Amino acid sequence: MLSSSRTLQMDNVNPEAVFSCKEEADLYLEELDRVQFHTKYNFLKAHNGFRKGNMHTFLGTSGGGKSTLTRSLMIDMFQNFSHKEDKILLWLSEERSKDYIAQLHKTGMPFELINRIIVYSEVDENGKNRKDVIKRLDWIISEHKPMAVFYDNITTSMEYATVTIPEQDKFYHRLKTLALNSDIPFLIMAHTNGKITENYEHLIDQNDIRGSKQPAMISEFFYILQAFYVNEVRHNTIRLTKFRGSSVEHRLYMLDYKKEMQLFVTDRKLEFEGFKEIFKTRNTLK
């Protein structure tokens, strides 16, 4: 049953423009509230998890935990959502496929699950086969029908890193259209600009993304990874800054890292006041 606050107001609206009737609109709103992908992570449960056809962009510094999070989320998706034959498409721009798969074995991920990850690496090709990334993604999705696409990392990808800002804008819009037409979630990892490094003295902002600001503007969901050290202890945080169509009560979480598995195994709510106290004691250069 929808709450009155989520009931679509159809007054003064031509229902034929979008929905054929109010009941159809209400069914659409109910779908927005439904959990489509079950997960163990609280920061995803905060907005009912990944959404089909939506762009979920994760921003962080170089070495800030994006690849670790990618591995963690793939395992979570297999363990908590997938059916027996479900696959994941993983597009890599910085690592060889062999290196990435070796890291997955180190996590203890079962071999039969690893074999259900379709891995494409731009590094493997060494820039020799530069083709339209969107068309290639579209073909792979059509052939293999993955339940999700992981893109690690868009800001170092061959058709994004070396082109102009307007061309980056166009690329991201095309990627968003592909996600919508494929009706699967796209999880996009992105670097911050070069001025922002680990132990950055301020909170990282959406606009701190490298290159085009379109990922921050048109993604339905946007998350910021920010890591810092207090003495020898590394603190990995994730913050929800955009969650279109959802009402989120808690936005800040601590990710718990397990070194021997190289995964974020759990996460927990972090009150902002508590975060500020920890952040004030971070290691800084004198």
What does the secondary structure layout of this molecule look like, with pairings?
Layout: H1 22-33, H2 42-45, E1 55-60, H3 66-80, E2 88-92, H4 97-106, H5 111-114, E3 117-121, H6 122-125, H7 133-144, E4 148-152, H8 165-182, E5 186-191, H9 214-218, E6 221-230, E7 233-243, E8 252-258, E9 263-269, H10 272-280
Short summary:
The chain has 286 residues and is of the alpha/beta class.
Entry keywords:
disordered N terminus; globular; 286 residues; nine-stranded mixed β-sheet; Rossmann fold; alpha/beta
Give structural notes:
It is a single chain. By secondary structure, the protein is α/β, with parallel strands linked by helices. The protein has one domain (45-280): Rossmann fold (3-Layer(aba) Sandwich), CATH 3.40.50.300. The chain has helices spanning 22-33, 42-45, 66-80, 97-106, 111-114, 122-125, 133-144, 165-182, 214-218, 272-280, and strands spanning 55-60, 88-92, 117-121, 148-152, 186-191, 221-230, 233-243, 252-258, 263-269. A 9-stranded mixed beta sheet has the order 3-2-4-5-1-6-7-8-9, with helices on both faces. A hairpin with an 8-residue loop joins strand 7 and strand 8 (252-258).
What's the number of structural domains?
Answer: 1
Major sheet strand order: 3-2-4-5-1-6-7-8-9
Counting helices, strands and paired strands, the structural category is alpha/beta
CATH H-level superfamily: P-loop containing nucleotide triphosphate hydrolases
Q: How large, in whole angstroms, is the Cα Rg?
A: 20 Å
**Percent of residues in beta strands?**
15-25%
Order of helices and strands: HHEHEHHEHHEHEHEEEEH
| Total number of helices | 10
Write down the overall mean pLDDT.
Answer: 88
Percentage of helical residues? 25-40%
Q: What is the CATH fold-level name?
A: Rossmann fold
CATH architectural designation: 3-Layer(aba) Sandwich
Total count of strands: 9
Largest sheet: 9 strands, mixed
What is the general shape? globular
- What's the N-to-C terminus distance? 57 Å
